[in-house]
Amino acid sequence: MRTFYDEISQIAGNVVTVKAQGIGYDELAVITTDQGSSLAQVIRLEDDQVSLQIFGGTEGVSTGDKIRFLGHSFQVPFSDALLGRVFDGSGRPRDGRPEVKAQTVETGSPAVNPIKRRVPDKMIHTRIPMIDIFNTLVGSQKLPIFSVAGEPYNDVLARVGMQADAEVIILGGMGLRHDDYLTFRHRFDEAGVLGRTIMFIHTAADPVVECLLIPDLALAVGEQYALQGKNVLVLLSDMTAFSDALKEIAITMEQVPSNRGYPGDLYTQLARRYEKAVDFDGAGSMTVLACVTMPGDDVTHPVPDNTGYITEGQLYLRNGRIEPFGSLSRLKQLVNGDTRDDHRAIMNACIQLYAQCDESREKREMGFELSEWDDRLLQYGDLFEDEIMNLNLNIELFDALDKCWEILAGCFQPEEIGIRDAIIQKHWPGKSPKKEKEKSPEPVQV
User: Fold this and answer.
1) Does residue 419 register a pLDDT over 90?
2) How far is it, in rounded angstroms, from Cα 242 to Cα 219?
3) I need a labelling partner for 324 at 20 to 30 A (CA). Which of 58, 145, 273, 351 fits?
4) How far is the C-alpha of 288 from the C-alpha of 269, rounded, in Å?
5) pLDDT tens, 210-236?
6) Among 94-98, 114-118, 166-170, 260-264, whose mean pLDDT is lowest?
């Protein structure tokens, strides 16, 4: 057991600075005050000056209080008893049930060695056509959802969690409103997936330092399940709140600010979390789907900008839909060639025709005369938005591909959609046009 340190030299915000030696970064400590004790974490080391973030805030803390360092970083208990439970950023139960007593694992460990990783090759079916067909989610992928405030990004995360074929679902909520947290819980419960879900929730009223711990708690638990052979889906919302918490602490520590006031190590802090996504060789996988809100719809904002360099694509959420042009899954080509022979052809044809529909809409808005081709493009765009782009859909991949064929057949001739004839003959709804032409003529009555 370590000795107590009581040479507190500074108290600023929720951060205290104490003179101590032999202390490690991220190490936990207990500060004892007249009102009780609080947990703290080391966030800065400078010679013998150690700065700690107090979880419960510095109210009631004085320079004469004693600090005892625990010799380890934050740990979380791990067992199947976590399933169906809700915890806060300190790992305490938020659902009113008892604490989980189990062997602990440390959070914030390094990313997995590349030689222990498999090349991603497993599709995660979400039953959302705009993801499954056009921006396929791949096991062990790290994929963000870029959104603005007011868009239903939490609804999209909840729907993916309810519909994805994952064995364990872990939600890490940062800066959530209380009703958002309740919505996640109720929807998972109604969908029957709460029993395989673990939630780590930080609300806007909770201490800032707990916001920083949420991703580490979720990813540490997810990694353990992946090592047991489970396919884990980690949902994080939202990483901009996490980054704002980093900025708040950096300002308290009087660090020299970088772009828009964020700390200079923002990229490293984000990469430490995103790079935990992994497909273990000989075990399971962990996939990370994270929401990143963009203030002012500005993709050059430091958080989405840095995220885009780290992750493997992005989903743009605009006007309640996943935007087909800005969205990209860089790993989709690893799996969508093995689903069905028409997957890539449908993906390319539908997006190309939808782009032409946008041009026809611009012509209509500018008052230009529309051709018969423009009218059919407009009809196609409306059907495509209602029956494919709708995020409330819950459709298996093959059924969604068939639906795309039905929409194309209702608006265009086979030679107009830009798909190879061999694929058209196999998948065109009803009788193929070629066979229809080659059908023997009716016998002539004499």
Assistant:
1) yes
2) 14
3) 273
4) 15
5) 899 999 999 999 999 999 999 999 999
6) 114-118
Mean model confidence pLDDT for the chain:
90
Token duo for residue 254: 């009087």
Higher-confidence residue of 253 and 409: namely 409
pLDDT by residue (tens digit) across 130-172?
Answer: 999 999 999 999 999 999 988 999 999 999 999 998 999 999 9
51: β partners: 17, 44
197: Cβ–Cβ under 8 A, 6 or more apart, which residues?
Answer: 83, 84, 161, 168, 169, 170, 171, 188
Torsion of CA 351, 353, 356, 362, to 10 degrees: -80
Phi, psi for residue 326 in degrees, rounded to 5: -85, -15
Sign of the Cα torsion 220, 240, 266, 161 reads positive
Mean pLDDT of 93-104: 92
CA angle in degrees (0–180, nearest 5) for 165-171-177: 135
- Tens digit of pLDDT for each residue in 238-253? 999 999 999 988 888 8
Report the topology of domain 75-334: Rossmann fold (3.40.50)
From residue 44, alpha-carbon distances to 58, 66, 70, 254 in Å are: 17, 19, 16, 11
Q: Which residues does 373 contact at the CB level (< 8 Å), separation at least 6?
A: none
Q: Is 94 helix (H, G, I), strand (E, B) or coil?
A: coil
Measure CA of the first residue to CA of the last residue in the chain; give whole Å: 109
Q: DSSP string covering 159-217, please?
A: HHHHHS--SEEEEEEEEE-HHHHHHHHHHHHHHT-GGGEEEEEEETTS-HHHHHHHHHH
- Tell me the whole-structure pTM to 2 decimals: 0.90
Dig out the tokens for 154 from the structure. 């939490």
Give the pLDDT confidence score for residue 431 in this predicted structure: 54
Which amino acid is located at 36 in the chain? G
Whether the pLDDT of residue 300 is over 90: the answer is yes
Provide φ and ψ at 442, rounded to 5°: -65, 140
E-state strands within 271-331: 278-279, 285-293, 313-318, 321-322, 328-329
Domain ranges within the chain, ordered by starting residue: 4-69, 75-334, 343-430
CATH class of the domain comprising 4-69: mainly beta
CA contacts within 13 A on the Cβ side of 21: 0
